[in-house]
Amino acid sequence: MKKIIISAFALILVLTSCSAGTLFGGSAKDYMGEEVTGEVARDSALWRELEDMLCMLTVNSAELPEFDSMSDSVELCHDSLLNYMFGRGYSKYSGDHDMIEKIEKYYPGYDVICAIPQADFESEMYRCFGGSVKITHRSSTLFRYLEAAEVYVPVTAPISGEVDIVLDTAEETKSSYRLTFTCSAGEKKLGYCAVLVKRDDGTFYFDAVLKK
Question: What are phi and psi of 205, to 5 degrees?
């Protein structure tokens, strides 16, 4: 009987550990043990900034990519981040005549109205997802990568308004923000959790996004 009780207790520990790893794997588990110091005010600039960052996680689906490492986020959020940059920086990226001339030099006859420099994409990826993983540049569903000019050019207009993202809660700890939010598209509605890690300069980046 004693052996059975010990075995059962060990099994509970294993299941608990697996559950925590599934919900917030990788380094995010470190932040889940921190004491909550407060809640972000719903009418604050910080709340709006956190809510806006959620928009870079998807293009047109309530089914978000789940990740708990930068290497995964680089791969899974490639298109959604470029679409986010394209939509919010259209005038910047469509008005860069020097960049468009550079593309025409390497790709004569290629009709380009907008281009996102590779360096801008890398900078935004590191800003939003942290880390120092080497980013592999490639063409994707919504963007073509022009290697010689080191730019991304869109194959369609920016996609927006397809998904409704609502930030439900935002808790603050010493080192992070812990969010719960809901994504809706048509009749599909899904709940998610996210951990964003604070930097010393006041900015923050996604450490994990997982389904509730």
Answer: -145, 155
Mean pLDDT of 24-39: 74
β partners of residue 179:
170, 194
Token digits for 165? 């993202």
Instruction: Supply the DSSP symbol for 127.
Output: H
Longest dimension (CA), the chain: 80
162 close to 185: Cβ distance less than 8 angstroms:
yes
φ, ψ dihedrals at 194, nearest 5°: -145, 150
**Do residues 140 and 79 lie in contact, with contact meaning Cβ atoms separated by under 8 Å?**
yes
Strands, E, within 163-203: which ranges? 164-172, 176-185, 188-198
How confident is the model over 115-165, as pLDDT tens digits? 999 999 999 999 999 977 889 999 999 999 999 999 999 998 888 877 999
Looking at residue 29, what is its pLDDT?
60
Parallel, antiparallel or unpaired: strands 164-172 and 151-154:
unpaired
Burial class (CB in 10 A: 0-12, 13-18, 19+), 74: buried
Residue 159 is predicted with a pLDDT of: 85
pLDDT at residue 187 greater than cutoff 80: yes
The DSSP output letter for 71 is H
At residue 11, does pLDDT exceed 60? no
Half-sphere exposure of 93 (CA within 13 A, CB side): 24
